Fold these 3 entries.
Entry 1:
Amino acid sequence: MQRGPDHPELDANDMLPDYACRFVDVHCHCLPGLDDGPTSMVEAVALCETLAADNVGLVVATPHQLGRFESSTPAGEVRRTVERLNRALAERGVNLRVLPGGEVRLDERIAELLARDEILTLADMKRHVLVELPDEIFIDAGPLFRELRSQGVEVVIAHPERNLPLLRQPQILRRWLDRGASLQVTAGSLTGCFGRDVKQVAWELVARGWTVCVASDAHDRADGQSGLGMASEMIATRLGTEVARLLCAENPVRIVKGERPLSLLSRNRQEVG
């Protein structure tokens, strides 16, 4: 298993002994002063307290990288801020651990910038990169995804249910998935925070086996109040507790460990539309 530069080989039992009973959040803007998340350490700790109260035990901090935040979230600064936040959480007795990562805006330079250690993979494990696609236009990122996979990096696409240009090209999305890309759906999309249409698409992506994990994408304390706990309960009610555990704990732990996550219902994938 590949390891990140700032921590030894990770073991799920060392990181989160009860991970099967708690949630692992692989997309969260919890670092202070770096992007459009908390503006101060006080706000960052408050957000983490809300997540911990929602039964989250492990969080990957994913500040926006590239795009309009390119100059403010270099890899080294993200790692240092994660260390500061973890110290603050320990001092306040918050039972939650934070690991470094990033939500990387789609850019043809991603492979190069990862190789130069200027942007981050999830949990800094050099195995999965969380990619945010443009909101208003469709770009076929297949060639970039193939390049990354040839270098041993798997793509996790952030909140595809909120990307209408992508959903208008379901055959392209299917092709990306068949070639190893994965989808991360936002908890708030499942609970209805982004409207009825987004909620419907999010549930389709989960039910059809296109989704490997659900994450909060929380930016402040209010975001965390309708996060993984509520989404997990809804998934368990509709699709069963095993599915809820897979999407909210087991697959996220595999991502954190640098393992390939398992897709749900992969044999029954259908086109969205």
Note: The longest strand covers residues 23-28.
Entry 2:
Amino acid sequence: MNGTALFNFGSRWLPAREKRSGFSLIEVTIALGVVTFAAVSILGLLPTGLVVMRNAMNQTVEAQIVRSIAGQSVVANFANLTAGSPFYFDDEGQRVFTAEGSAYTVSLSNTTPVYPGSTNASTNLSASLVNLRIEIVERRSQQAVGITNLRTLQVANYGK
């Protein structure tokens, strides 16, 4: 022997520099276990991610609905702010004129604003400013119980 280590592979002896390379069964099993654990963890987070995405989408559509109502309320007369309520909107925030096929039902009501610390401000400003209460009911089907969100908007009259 000239100092070279020999390894027994079946019926033949090979020097160390000619050793076959590869993964053992234990190494492959451990690698598969790690990959499986990671895949199951990611799949477990998928439903949570979908719920969060759906909630974010609903908030975005509701903000678009409020913006649409705010734009219309600025040019409308105070007496006509709640006329035609309830309003219907589809799942993209576009107004539709029938309850059938709508995803959101919006009810409007106006109240006189309350000003803390002042007793006569409400009488002086009631002709110029009104609180618009916006009730948005999100409903995916007509039979389902809807989720209600309330928004408040202060609308100035600008001399109308």
Note: The mean pLDDT is 80.
Entry 3:
Amino acid sequence: MDVRKRGIESFRPALENLLPGAFCAVIGDPLSEKRGIVLHTDGAGSKPVQSYLQWRETGEKEWFGTLAQDVLAMNVDDVICVGAAPQGFVDYVAINPIRVPKEDVLRGLSACFSECISMLRRYGVRLRFAGGETADLPDQVRTLDVSGTVSASVELARAITGAGIRPGDLIVGLRSGGRAKYEKRENSGIMCNGITLARHCLMRKEYGRKYPETVEPGTRGYFGRFGADEYLERLGMSVGEAILSPTRIFAPVVLRIIQAAGEGVSGLVHNTGGGLTKCLRLGRNIRYVKDELPEPDPIFLLIQEEGRVSWREMYQDFNVGVGFEVIVRRDAADEVLSAAERFGLGARVIGRCERGSGGNSLIISAQHGKFVYR
């Protein structure tokens, strides 16, 4: 997994970003010099492959629907990191109709998109669904891929860029697992990153033979010992459910945090690609110290054990139980914690910001060891 996304630097010369260093690129609004536009695109990672495997094993087409929540979360929660208000959303579904039940997939996605967008509106996120594109690509896609794009608007003077992060700020972590008040079911916490590693180290080897379209020829493929529908007491759900547990949408909580803490919020981080090291992209000459992390959710412990993944890599590839971080002035931390509590969302101060030198750095100090990232 390339958490540093090598190669994207090729696009920087063409990027018209008004706020360099912010979590998302912000371009100018041609209708207002005071506002900026955010266009952000992302997908559900390799979760669609696991959805396909679950369907093939169980015959239950419902496994496809929750991918819509994953795509919405990966987009909406990124743009809100600059304080932008999500406005419009379109999806893109690339599918192999020879292998995948196209109409059932689209019905499931549509229902979940509608449900999630209705929930967001109830909490003040006025997102509108503007359709999208479905492409039948049997020669290019083995199973299916689901992604989307969100448009958002931000008042430039009020944008949260991370430039104001300073020594003494606290880092409040919002839990990725459990169940918030606006959710229907318990969440494993895995979100959308590291799914390929999770699938390969947990799913039985036989699935590679049964469904060769789900693995790249010539690679190790699946090497786990669990069935897709096998229930584990330690997870409180089946292994397949844990892998496909829909990514939490943090926007309702973060919107309330911004309203409550105001200028006390100096940075917002959605812990997707890069896991707990994602904060390194914000601020300048900041040493992030995370030494009060919660115990990882069971799914992460299982992946680490079964895949024999080093903890250094785990913290880079997965959120390890902290899906979102709010960097805040010390005197505003209680406002953040109170806002999260109102939603039944687990939150705690997980660390602090110190003065760095020669660039940003991160120290993670936990029961599994001490690790330094730059």
Note: The mean pLDDT is 96.
